[in-house]
Each structure stands twice: as C-alpha cells, then as structure tokens.
Amino acid sequence: MGTNTLVKYPSVRPLAIYASDPNTARGRAIEQRSASERSPFQRDKDRIIHSSAFRRLKGKTQVFVAHEGDYYRTRLTHSLEVSQIARSIARVLGLDEDLAECLALAHDLGHPPFGHSGEYALAACMKPYGGFDHNAQTLRIVTHLEGRYAEFDGLNLTWETLEGIAKHNGPLITKETGVKDLPWAMTAIPNWEALELSTFAGPEAQVAALADDIAYNNHDLDDGLSAGLFSVEDVCEVPFVGEMFADVRRRYPDISESRLIHEAVRDMIGYMVADVLEETRRRLKAANPQSANEIRNLDHAVVAFSDDFRAKEKPLRDFLFQNMYKHYKVNRMMSTAGRVVRELFELFIVEPELLPKHLFAQTDGPETSVTARVVCDHIAGMTDMFAISEHKKLYQPAGYF
C-alpha cells in the first residue's frame, strides 16, 4: 500500500508507544493526498459514517426484527454503543481513539438482515459458491461494493482499518486451518495476503472486539427485560448479575424497576471495562511491546478480560442463550426470517432476471457462481423491512398487481 502521510498529525493526547500511530500508517491501496486537518484514521471513520452500508444498519436486526419496536437495539444503535465503549477504553490505554472508534463503527457493516438467523441462512445458500461470513462481507463492502468516489471502488481505507476489520477476533490463518478455510469474499479482496491474517490485529482492533462483547452482553440483557422475555427476578438468580442488581437496590431502596435496570446495566458495563483495563495493563507490562506491530506478532491478545471475569461471565451468556436467543418468540421470528432469506436467494439465483436491472447485468445465467455472488451481495445489503417487502411481492403477490 502506498503511503499517504505527507503531514504530521498532532494527537490530542500523547499516544502510548504501542499504539497505532497515524503518522506511520501503512497507507491506502489507492494513494491519496493527506488532509492536514484530519488523520488517516479520522478520515476512515468519517468514510464509514457517510457510507450507505452504515446508514442501512438502522434497519437491521440486533436480536429483534426491526419492526418489533423502536426501543430495541438495531445494528446501528449497537455499533454506536460499541464505539463509545471502545473510545473510552482506547483513551485510558493511550491508543488511537479514532482508529478504535472507526473499527467499532465498521464491525457489523457486513451483517445481512435478521441478525445471525439471516447470516446462517445466507451461509447455507452460499455453501456451494464459497460461503458467506459477515466479517468478510464487511471487507467486501469497504473495498468493492460502496460506490461513492470517482477514483476507486469501496472506501479506500487504510491498511490498519482493513486488517482490524478482518481479524479483530484473532488470527484467521493457523497451521490447523490454513488458507483453504477462508470465505470467498476474504480472498476476493485485492492483495488480501498483505493483511497478515496469521497474526493478531493491532491493539485498537482488539479493543473494538472487547467493546463489542461488553455492549451486546449488557444491552441484550436490557432488551430482553424490556421485551418481557424474562424478569428482573429471573436475572437476579444469575451470579454476578444478581450481585449488581442487589447492590443498586441497597444504594437506592425505593428505585423504580426501569431505573434499577438502567443503573445495574450501567454498573455491569463499568465493571467489565475496569476488568479489561486491569487485565490489559497486566499483559502489556508482561509483554512490554515497543510498537503496535510487536502486539500483532505476540502469540496471544493483549486486550482481554481476566480469567476471573470470564468465569463470572459464563452464567450470563448461558442465561441469555437459554432465555433470550432460544426463547420461543425469538425462535419463531428468526425461523421466519431465515425462510425469507433462503426463499429470496433460491428465487433470484434461478431467475436472475427478477433482480434490479443494474444487478441483472452483472449476472451470467442461472445458478452460476457469479450470479450467486451478485444475489448474495444484494440480499446481504437489505434491511429487515426491505427483505420482508421483497419476499411479500415475490411470494405473496395478492394486492400487488
């Protein structure tokens, strides 16, 4: 990648020696002149926010389908909450806040409609054609599908942002897995090998990954309570969670239930952030990295929860799995959502002429790999309500003609 660092970017706060420094960023695939008022990572963050894929997150499921109510989290509100947590952690650790926030905002761009149910359905449909993975789809969006700029496809993001998107959850290539297990969309990226998929991501990407864990654990609990899938009394039976609720009640004996929930969730987020900071400082002290690249080449993540908290967290994850993600109301909703995705794919791939004209022009006949990927991109970009509307027009046309 070519350099784009023609100016020096003063940081609001001094960066730690192991932070990703915008002044030594590895550059972009298409070289561009630097903007003196914004660092490369600030520009990446701004491009993400202005992208079409980011706007569509407002209509994509977190857990509840978007039309279920306007209180529940969508992928957009979830991404904003993740970015706030990531920015806060990065600031305390002396990391580049813009890069951490950028990666948090981008991490769910590739999710199809209907959350994980939509992803499972699309992955099954795409199995004969190279598979589907939302992280790989995010990279496809920012390197190819976004069409906003005259000089390039995608967003032409920096190497640091691309590698953070690709492997914020850890290395993608190991001796056990190898390149053969990478989803097609990952290896379709120009010069994908340069992302060094066998190493860990930089520290800001690791922060974004932990911020995601913190956000969805707490906010899914909040949404589940609001939806009536379980009660405060139920969650108070869960170790750690029950302690947090009991502590709020001790401090505020007459608190209303809604405020009790918000205070307890707030305290749990604070507890998790404090644990990440303490464990990360311990790991940084032990490893003593002198650069972000040294962090990438360690044999373990440096940004992490402690083992003690991981043990405390397991009962919460188990509770949410059994009482929320597997609740019969959610199961029904997700089963229907999966059928919508599957049936749209099955129809479009055998009758690509039903696609919008500009997409049909990109296909090369029924049931080919090229057509499957066009159909996959189209469905993955849909919001929940658009997918439902398209399915209704194609499968339930009464009243449409």
Automatic annotation (TrEMBL):
Molecular function terms, GO-annotated: dGTPase activity
Pfam families in UniProt: HD, HD_assoc
Gene3D superfamilies: Hypothetical protein af1432
Keyword Hydrolase: yes
Protein name per its UniProtKB record: Deoxyguanosinetriphosphate triphosphohydrolase-like protein
Family: Belongs to the dGTPase family. Type 2 subfamily.
Entry-linked SUPFAM superfamilies: HD-domain/PDEase-like (SSF109604)
InterPro entries assigned to the protein according to its UniProt record, in alphabetical order: dGTPase, dGTPase-like, dNTPase_2, HD/PDEase_dom, HD_domain, PHydrolase_assoc_dom
KW Hydrolase (keyword) present: yes
Native species: Litorimonas cladophorae
Family matches, as PROSITE patterns: HD (PS51831)
Gene Ontology process terms (BP): dGTP catabolic process
Keywords for this protein: Hydrolase
Residues in HD domain copies: 75-217
